[in-house]
Each structure stands twice: as structure tokens, then as C-alpha cells.
Specification:
Keywords: Cytoplasm, Methyltransferase, RNA-binding, rRNA processing, S-adenosyl-L-methionine, Transferase. This protein is 36% helix and 20% strand. It has eleven helices and nine strands. Strand 5, helix 5 and strand 6 (128-136) form a beta-alpha-beta unit.
Length: 263
């Protein structure tokens, strides 16, 4: 029996078989992989993922969905359902509890809290092998945007400094019940290895990026005033009159490194 989607949870249940198969194929779970699904809903992705991986964990906030999910999964494999807000789940500890070094994360994320979930996962990236998420297409475009793009911003920079961002394919509204008012897209995130990660204090990098994009129309000399002076910006071969959207992720790291050396 189909569950009634709840607006309060931002629920849009994926139902179209060809897109389900395409997502599962993109994830390509294997027996022995430890897959964690965020927001399994009615189990459209859960069951085929579980059939391949044999064992997996799902994080679900809606208690009404959990009994049916457990019942459908019982004949397929070993499913552990955690009733929790995903933003409060410690993925690093979860990997330890499951006895693995790396988790594989997947999910059709609620669009209204997709960015907080992404940043939460990035905070635990060292315990994650890869992530496959269904998101609003506009968000995926922002995640993968390059410098100079109109949608390049804080989300683009912070994610690209932590992960390789790989947009996979789009999913139309009709693939969901009820259909959302926007197009969706599936994206793969692969956390960078320790030697690929930026050399610098993450908190200072975040502070510089947040300040630089706080007022998109203003120049760096204005947005970074009080953090980094014009002479220091210029010493990095960065024009203080430039806007944040023209800088590469690496440029923000270099700016943060000067902030660190000064402070």
C-alpha cells in the first residue's frame, strides 16, 4: 500500500522503474559494501540496493514508513533502520559501529534541507567512500559550477574543496509521487584523498568563502574588509576589485592561508 507523502518532510517518492534502475546501476553496490541510505521512504531504492549489497542501513525520520519498509526488506536482505534526523547522525561513529573504514551513502534528499545534509556529510567525508544523491537540478548545477558561472557560489567552492563532484543525469518531475515543481538530478560525490585536500584551517577557509559570497555584487576588497586587506589580496595575484564568483576554489584556500598566518 502506498504511503501518503507528507509535505512537512518534503516527501516525493520515486516510482518510475527506469530511473530507479539507472540510479542503482550508477551506485553499483556489491556484496560486502556497507550502504547507508538517507530517507528510504517506501523503499524504491532500498530494495534493489539491498538485493545487491545483502546488508545495509537506512536512516528514516518518518515513523509511519518504518514498519512497511522493514516488512518489504525482510525477504531481500539484512536492513537496519535508524529512526533519526540525519543531521544528528554521526557517520564517522556509524562506520565504526558497522566495523568498516568507509560507508557508501545514497539517498533521495528532501530538497528543503539538501544543503545542510550535504555539508553534514562533508564533515564526515573521511569515513565515506562515495555519495550518490538525488537533488533539485538547480542545486546540482550549483554544486558542479565553475568560476565565472552565475550559479557558482559558496556551495560550489566548499563541496569542490572536499569532493569530486560528478553530475550523472536528470530526472523529470513525473518520476515522483507527487511530482515536484522542479527538475531533479543525480550526482556522485567522491571525497578527496588526504593528499588532495586543501592545506589550511577548514574554519578559516569557510570564513573567507562565506564572507566573499555574502554580497555577490561587491568586490573582494569590500566583502573581505576586516579579514584580509587589499595589499595582501594583491600579493596573491588576485585583483581586489574582482568578485568572489571569478575566483577558483584554490584561490580561496590561498586567501585563507594568509588569514591564518596573520592570525
Amino acid at each position: 500500500m502506498n504511503a501518503r507523502p507528507k509535505k512537512s518532510f518534503g516527501q516525493h517518492f520515486l516510482h518510475e522503474k527506469r530511473y530507479i534502475e539507472r540510479i542503482v546501476s550508477s551506485i553499483s553496490p556489491r556484496d560486502g559494501d556497507v550502504v547507508v541510505e538517507i530517507g528510504p521512504g517506501e523503499g524504491a531504492l532500498t530494495l534493489p540496493l539491498l538485493a545487491a549489497a545483502k546488508r545495509m542501513t537506512a536512516i528514516e525520520l518518518d515513523t509511519d514508513l518504518i514498519p512497511g519498509l522493514r516488512e518489504r526488506a525482510a525477504a531481500v536482505g539484512e536492513l537496519t533502520v535508524i529512526h533519526a534526523d540525519v543531521l544528528k547522525v554521526d557517520f564517522t561513529q556509524l562506520a565504526r559501529d558497522l566495523g568498516v573504514e568507509k560507508l557508501r551513502i545514497a539517498g533521495n534528499l528532501p530538497y528543503y534541507i539538501s544543503s545542510p545534509i550535504l555539508f553534514h556529510c562533508v564533515d564526515h567525508a573521511a569515513a565515506i567512500a562515495d555519495m550518490h544523491f538525488m537533488l533539485q537540478k538547480e542545486v546540482v548545477d550549483r554544486m558542479a559550477a565553475e568560476p565565472g558561472s552565475k550559479v557558482y557560489g559558496r556551495l560550489s567552492v566548499m563541496l569542490q574543496l572536499a569532493c569530486k563532484v560528478i553530475p550523472l543525469f536528470n530526472v523529470p518531475p513525473g518520476a515522483f509521487r507527487p511530482p515536484p515543481k522542479v527538475d531533479s538530478a543525480v550526482v556522485r560525490l567522491v571525497p578527496l584523498t588526504p593528499d588532495q585536500l586543501p592545506k589550511g584551517d577548514p574554519a578559516k577557509i569557510h570564513a573567507v568563502v562565506k564572507a566573499a559570497f555574502a554580497m555577490r555584487r561587491k568586490t573582494l576588497s569590500n566583502t573581505l574588509k576586516g579579514l584580509i586587506d587589499e595589499a595582501t589580496i594583491r600579493s596573491l595575484d588576485i585583483d581586489p576589485r574582482a568578485r568572489a564568483e571569478t575566483l577558483s576554489p584554490g584561490d580561496f584556500v590561498r586567501l585563507a592561508q594568509t588569514l591564518a598566518s596573520a592570525g
